[in-house]
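Give me the 3D structure for Toxin-antitoxin system YwqK family antitoxin.
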Amino acid sequence: MKKSLIILLLLFNTSLVKAQSFDSLSRSVPADSSGVVESSLLPTTAPILLFDDEKRKEEKKKKRKKKKKNIYYGERTRRDFIRVNARGKTQYQLFHYTTRNKMVNPYVRDVYWLDTKDDVIRTKGFNPEEGYLLHGPYEKRIDDAVVEKGMFYFGTKHERWMTFDQKNILLNKGHYYEGWPKDSRVTYYNKGEQQIEQVIPVEYELEEGNFYHFYENGQLAVMGEYHYGEKVGIWTEYWNTDGGKTIRKREIQYQEQPFTKNFRPYIKAEWNADGQLIYEY
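Predicted structure for Toxin-antitoxin system YwqK family antitoxin (281 residues):
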């Protein structure tokens, strides 16, 4: 009989403790209470936001799967690479090119193309019979480090381009549109009709690339090149022939390399309006 009473008392006390524990959870917890919570008391349903995030990730994956391989800006391309060993390091150039030879913008200075005979990427003198225009993603590596990456559009730099050091630290970032730095300055005779007066290429806040000045009738008036903000090479002026033949008026020789000390520009040659040479240095 005594044993039965003891067992009943123990069961009563246990039930009382459990009831008190449940009651304490239902009331507000004091500020200085322990932060430890039994896992059995944690919610078993994840917030809806997490499921939305997962759904968004899945949608992105599906979009990537739908994207056709080796097609960029609607153009089918081929992948290739060039490997060069020098000074104990290996340089890789990984790129895409198109076999369709679109007309290259004559006003863009640098047109990148694969010379298939010499297996090298060139920026001048594109010849459709000797190679192909780069088109699509490009990446340059030295050993395992990416030092340059960007996109090409029919041989011209396009969208964002970045350069890095061999510790993957960003050195420069530029934006282009079909070969023109997006910071380039353009002035107009009539902006509404897009009647261009001057195109001044600007890259990293310095003039860099081909400069053009046009007559109001659209004919080329002056052409030259900037490098690191300095005029370099030969700058050519043209006569205004009202849409007739393009005739040189004057050639001015500037330094071949920027920041050349003690160099003074000089007139190299002059022509009259009929195209006859009247002066030569």
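Confidence is low (pLDDT under 50) at residues 1-53. Let me know if you want a second pass.
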